[in-house]
Amino acid sequence: MRINCSRLCRTDFPLIYQHCTTSQLKQIQSHLTVSGAIADPLLLGELSARFAISHLSYARSLLHLSSHRSVSIWNTAIRALSENHQPHNAFLLCKHMVRSSLLPDNYTFSFLFRACAEISDVVLASMCHSLVIKLGQGRYDYVQNGLIHCYASCTSIDSARRLFDESSNRDVITWTAMINGYFKIGEPGLARKLFDKMPIKNAASWSCMINGYAHLGMPMEALEIFNNMLISGIRPNFSGFVGALSACTSLDALVQGMWIHAYIDRNNMKLDGVLGTALIDMYSKCGCIGIALDVFERLPSRDVFAYTSLILGLANHGESIRALELFKRMEDEGVRPNEVTFICVLIACSRVGMVEQGLRIFGRMKDVYGIIPRSQHYGCLVDLLGRAGLVEEADEVVRKMPVEADEFVLGALLNACRFNGDMNFEKTTVDGLSERCLDHSGVHVLVSNIYASLNKWDDVERVRREMADRRVKKVVGFSLLALEVDETM
Q1: What distance in Å separates the CA atoms of residue 359 and residue 349, rounded to the nearest whole number?
Q2: Is residue 352 classed as helix, strand or coil in its secondary structure?
Q3: Which of 62, 323, 408, 422 gets the highest tally of CB atoms within 10 A of its CB?
């Protein structure tokens, strides 16, 4: 579609840029060049920013050839890259700016620090810090605060704290960044001490504490902070609600979770995808799959995370057929499934023994959506075949899979042996895995438990003795379900 640029005024262009394709942007550029308006710093800066997001090399050429040489124009493009999650391109464009004999200013560094924090690159952070000192930009408060946030995000907490203590003008964002940094390195005690010292707390700082505790597996502390936040009179933001609901899920605290849901409704807060998914996850895991379905249907828009959470919830509540129907609806509505979605769908197929459909879905994952199966997917496939009594086919999957078999896959294979009572095949399987150096501790423990369930105590002792001879140590257990939910969230 052609754009009639002659009818547009100066302030219209930045708004139109946001909805233009690359060819339409070039059309606008031609009009601006012919009319002479390309010399306007506002128009040139916004145009180069839009080009940078979709066509970096073209944006770079546009900036190089411009007769209007200004750091502010380059900053507009660097900021756009930083805000649109293209941190490496933001640094690359800054590098070309320096090559054009233009040095970064205080605004440039604020965008670079944001980009650096996104990729958690402490080396780049140190390089930027050195350049800040060399160019004398450290006198700006927001440059110092940005650097503190950058170091904290890169888990270089000592550097962040040193700058924090030296800073004379610390705002609430700086305090929150330091608190978040302590949570990132697993130091909730230091985070709490700093939080208690904060002169002013806002919803973001309270939410940082709630989510920090929830992420570290401290749900009681998360809910304590949430309640204190309400008592202090500060209304939680969406992030705070998500953290509190996550804590409720961990504690099976259905009553508290329902109270939070009622609070959201009472204050006429519209559910977005993240908060809606948190509610669906909480109700599903607390045994209220009906309410989870109701929340799902009330969402104004349903993304892949909401669908995935409900598919898993239905499968775990013995509603695998409905889970598969929901997956079909997801595809019909044009929502693209991700890796975790397929894990949940394969689990649903396994629960009801739908082997052919499971195999078909496993194949479509790569052929239709271009998702390369990981060990969790192969583990689900092995479980699907094993539950159907197809132990040899499951073993063949393990032997031919292109990724290394881990506890997910091996556990599923040995469970298949247990389901079918084929202990001779189990021994052959374990011997084969041992030859391939895949006899992890989880394999031995599972084999031992299988023998114990069959009252074959001599074999239990033999397996334990083999573990000792091979110096195999039992590792701390973990949950596949927990890993799946972490990814969806």
Answers
A1: 9
A2: helix
A3: 323
Contact yes or no for 76/47 (Cβ under 8 A): no
* 37-63 pLDDT tens trace: 766 777 777 788 888 888 888 888 888
Helices 289-298, 304-316: crossing angle, 10 deg rounding: 160
Helices 203-215, 188-197: axis angle to 10 degrees equals: 170
Report the chain's C-alpha Rg in angstroms: 28
DSSP string, 417-443: HHHHT-HHHHHHHHHHHHHTT---HHH
Q: What is the DSSP string of 69-127?
A: --HHHHHHHHHHHHHTT-HHHHHHHHHHHHHTT----HHHHHHHHHHHHHHT-HHHHHH
| Residue recorded with tokens 């197809």 | 390
pLDDT score recorded for residue 70? 85
Q: What is the SS3 assignment for 235-288?
A: CCCHHHHHHHHHHHHHHCCHHHHHHHHHHHHHCCCCCCHHHHHHHHHHHHHCCC
Provide the token pair at 94: 């800054």
Q: Are 303 and 451 in contact (CB under 8 A)?
A: no
Q: Contact 210/225 with Cβ under 8 angstroms? A: yes
Token reading at 420: 């079918």
Say which DSSP state 333 is in.
T
Cβ count near 456 (within 10 Å): 15
> pLDDT value at position 325?
96
Residue 144 confidence (pLDDT): 86
Query: Which pLDDT belongs to residue 381?
Result: 93
| Cα–Cα distance list, 267 to 193, 235, 253, 291 (Å) | 32, 10, 22, 19
Distance (Å, whole) CA 103 – CA 91: 13
Residue type, 274: V
Contacts 24+ apart (CB under 8 A), 156-165: 156/122, 156/125, 157/181, 157/182, 157/184, 157/185, 157/187, 159/125, 159/126, 159/129
Using CA atoms, how far apart are residues 70 and 75, in angstroms rounded to an integer?
Answer: 9
Question: Can you list the residues of the chain whose pLDDT is less than 70?
Answer: 1-19, 22, 38-39, 407, 418-447, 449-451, 453-454, 467, 469-489
| 78-95 per-residue burial string, b: 16 or more CB within 10 A, e: under 16 | bbbbbeeebbebbbbbbe
The residues, any chain, with a CB within 8 Å of residue 435's CB and separated by 6 or more, are: none
Local structure of 392: helix, strand or coil? helix
Q: Is the pTM of this model over 0.85?
A: no
